[in-house]
Amino acid sequence: MVRLVARNEGVEYRDRHGVYHFDVSRVAREWTVLLPGSKGENPVPHELTLEEERRILPRITGYLSRIKWFGVFPRSYSVRIRRGSTA
Q: Cα–Cα distance between 26 and 79 in angstroms, integer?
């Protein structure tokens, strides 16, 4: 399951392996997902393994690229994955 959280400033991904959190930002029609994220119910910084990247990032990209605002208004966005801090 993927969902936006914290006033659309984060994305949460959950599966049988755990819960992952990533900071996101949107400018115009492009989302940026910042890595590394965190893992766990009490988030701890976590660098994704190659297997986690292959499993998680395509799902987050797919979710963010076709969000429906208010459940009605479909929009199409590009998604960029960026490593490093926002500073």
A: 9
Tokens of 68: 């429906």
Mean pLDDT of 47-76: 90
Question: How many C-alpha atoms does 29 have within 13 Å on its Cβ side?
Answer: 6
Give tens-digit pLDDT for 6-20: 888 999 999 999 999
Record the pTM.
0.87
Burial class for 29, CB neighbours closer than 10 Å (0-12, 13-18, 19+) = exposed
Contact (Cβ atoms closer than 8 angstroms) between residue 46 and residue 36 = yes
